[in-house]
Amino acid sequence: MTRVRQAGERIEELLSRLRSADGDAAAAAEELVRLLLGLYGDGLSHIMDALAAEGAAGDRVSDRLLADPLVENLLLLHDLHPLDVDTRIQRALDRVRPYLGSHAGGVQYLGVGADGVARLRLEGSCHGCPSSTVTVQLAIQGAVEDAAPEVTEVVVEGMTEPPGPALLQIGRRPPDAAASGLTDPAAGEGGGLPGDPGWVSLPAVGPPDGRPAATVAGGVPIVVCSVRGTLYAYCDACAACGSSLAGGTLTGERLDCPRCGAGYDVRSAGRSLDDPGRHLDPLPLLTDSQGIRVALPAGAAPGREPAGEAVSR
C-alpha cells in the first residue's frame, strides 16, 4: 500500500498548507480531490462490473489484477474489493506467517466485531513468548491494516509484555563467582545470569529521519528502520546478497539493498518484495524508560558494548 498511502499523505499535507494560507483555495482543492476520486472510483466500478459479467474468464482477470498491490489498494480505497474483510485478513496472515517462523504458527483469526476491531489469538508453543511479542504484534498489525484499512484496531490476545531487567538479590558475592560464570551486576550492560533473555540496549538513534540506521549490539550487526514513527529492527544483512542495508533506501515501508537493489517490507517482518523465498531476520524491539532494546537471536552473546560506539547512518 506504499504508493497509495504516500499519495494520500502528500495530498493531505498540501491541503493542510492551503488551509493555513488560504481557506478559499483549500475548499476548492478539497472539492477537486473529491471530484477526481469520485470519477476514478466510478471508472473502477464499471471495470469490476464488466469483469464480473464475464464469468470465469472475468474472475481470472480479476485475480491477476488483485495480485497487483497498487490495483488492490485502489480497489480498497474505493470500497470495490471483491473479497470480504474476513477473507482479506486470512490471506494477509497466510502471506506473513512464513516470515515469522515459529512465532506466528499459532495465530488464530477471531473476526472483526461491530466496533471494527479485528481480534486474533496467539496459541501453541509461542503463546505468551515474551521475546516474540514485538516482532509478532507489529508484523500482524501491519498485515491486517494493509489488507483491511476499514479495521479500526487490531487486538492480538495471548501476548505478554516483554520482560524488564531481572531483579537481582544483592548480597555477599561468592568467592568463586567469576569462575562459575556469574556476572557482576555493576559491570555494565548485558550483565546477568547465564541463560537470561538476550535483551540489549542500543545506542541512541536520534529522531527518526527516514533512513536506515546501523549499529552493533552484543556483537550482532543490526539495522533499525523508522516507518511513520515506529521502529523496526533486523539483523543487518541483505537476504539476497548478504551486504549491509545501512546505506539502503527506505521509502515508506520498503527498504532497498544498496548493493543489489533487493526490496523488503519493513512492516511485514522483512518479507522480500522480489522473491517469496527470502526475508530479513527480524529482531524484537522494545522502547521504554530504559531506551531502545532488542532481543538478540538465540546463541548470540550479549555483552557490554565498546565505549563510544554509535549508530552509523
What does the largest sheet look like?
4 strands, antiparallel
- The ordered string of helix (H) and strand (E) elements is HHHHHEEHEHEEEEEEEEEEE
Query: Overall pLDDT, averaged?
Result: 75
Distance linking N and C termini: 26 Å
Number of strands: 14
Explained architecture:
33% of the residues lie in helices and 19% in strands. The longest helix has 31 residues, at 23-53. The protein has 313 residues and is an alpha+beta fold. It has a 4-stranded antiparallel sheet, with no helix packed on it. Strands 8-9-10-11 form a 4-stranded antiparallel sheet, with no helix packed on it. The chain has a 3-stranded mixed sheet with strand order 1-2-3, with helices on one face. The chain is globular and about 60 Å long. Residues 127-131, 162-197 and 301-313 have low confidence and may be disordered. Helix 2 packs across helix 3 and helix 5 (85-96) crosses helix 6 (133-147). A hairpin with a 2-residue loop joins strand 13 (285-288) and strand 14 (291-295). The chain has helices at residues 2-21, 23-53, 56-66, 69-77, 85-96, 133-147, 177-180; strands spanning 107-112, 117-122, 153-157, 199-201, 213-217, 220-227, 230-235, 249-251, 254-256, 263-265, 271-272, 282-283, 285-288, 291-295.
